[in-house]
Amino acid sequence: MNTTKSSKLFAEAQIHMPGGVNSPVRAFKSVGRDPLYIKSAKGAKMTDVDGNEFIDYIGSWGPMILGHAEPRVIKAIQAAAEHSTSFGASSEKEIELAKLIKKFVPSIEIVRMVNSGTEATMSAMRLARGFTKRDKIIKFEGCYHGHGDSFLIKAGSGVATLGLPDSPGVTQSTAKDTLTARYNDIESVTELVESNKDNIAAIFIEAVGGNMGCVPAKKAFLQALRDLCDAEKILLIFDEVMTGFRLAKGGAQEIYGIAPDLTTFGKIIGGGLPVGAYGGRAEIMKMIAPSGPVYQAGTLSGNPLAMTAGFETLRVIDETPDFYAKLEEKSAYLENGMKDLLKKANLDYTINRVGSMFTLFFTNADVLDFDTAKLSDTSKFTKFFNSMLENGVYLPPSQFEACFLSITHSQEDLDATLAAFEKSLS
Ligand code: HOZ
Fold this sequence. Notes:
- By secondary structure, this protein is of the alpha/beta class.
- Helix content is 39%, strand content 15%.
- It has 15 helices and 16 strands.
- The relative contact order is 0.17.
- The model has no long low-confidence stretch (mean pLDDT 97).
- Bound molecules: (4S)-4,5-diaminopentanoic acid (HOZ).
- (4S)-4,5-diaminopentanoic acid (HOZ) is lined by residues 23, 25, 61, 144, 157-158, 211, 401.
- Residues 23, 25, 61, 144, 157-158, 211, 401 line the site of (4S)-4,5-diaminopentanoic acid (HOZ).
């Protein structure tokens, strides 16, 4: 594969940007090669500046559930742009998107739009502290809730990939208010709650973890968290930045049948433009300024282009018959195909999949939490990743990320992926 132009661009980029990139997970550092520069993408395919074409399983880290450059979404963005790219004032699309989010996710009574998933989780944390008048939060090892100071403790995603569990620059006084528990282990949570009685404002969790690879929570564990939060007056906050509108219209909370007090969103609700949101019970959300005293603001929040892209994306999902059943069918086909090929090659690696999110771990252990995710042989992942890329399949460049399918992945794409998979196992 010729990647000369990409490598030339990367050499230049390193003069101007830290590590040559604007987000660490893009740097391909852990897979030992220069990142590719993408020129265009359509449906399930991406093309780089050297003209190589790939079947894409990153989907911009989640948002491109309809595939790239979906015609209705693009047309709506173009039409909206004719009326200006930003007002810094209210516009009707904000209400329409808020209504659609509420329709899809019944636990959301009031929602506030922001500009990224990071902003959503940071704001939800401040709100939880303001509402409960408590300081500490609990998060889970290997879960990633964006790069807010309080969340960069034993975090997943790029933090795990680059081995930077506790980032310099996070002060000790901030870090001491973040307690970390073990995913899928309720005792590790109850111990923290008991030793910090009446001090925990919120428990943050990705109900299906996507930042230590794909690691689903067990239903009994989530139910136990819900019960514990109710008993101790702690807010349960689901980070559905990745899972929202991806696993089901109502996200992970719909498939588990468990309602959190607050939910954070991003990715799909921006249809590929920068958006986040947080919402939940009205009693809590009314604490946000200007209806309440907890301050949170943003010039670009509710930006008309982003609202339009998100609204149109959710509408396409809503109007496509059996959208999630079709996505499940494609995802199950891929999972079963990979499992058959692993068996044929006498390999017993673990595949975790929930709906259109999945990860192959190079271990035969059940992957239930961050410790078991780390059992994966990352040197094998690196070899596998590079072979898949050489064979036309673009995976997240880290063991500790999830792969995403879109509704535009065709039977041909899935079969080509399986052919690349078979070659890459040897
Ligand atoms: N949540 C995404 C990765 N797990 C964000 C991608 C990024 O950090 O650039």
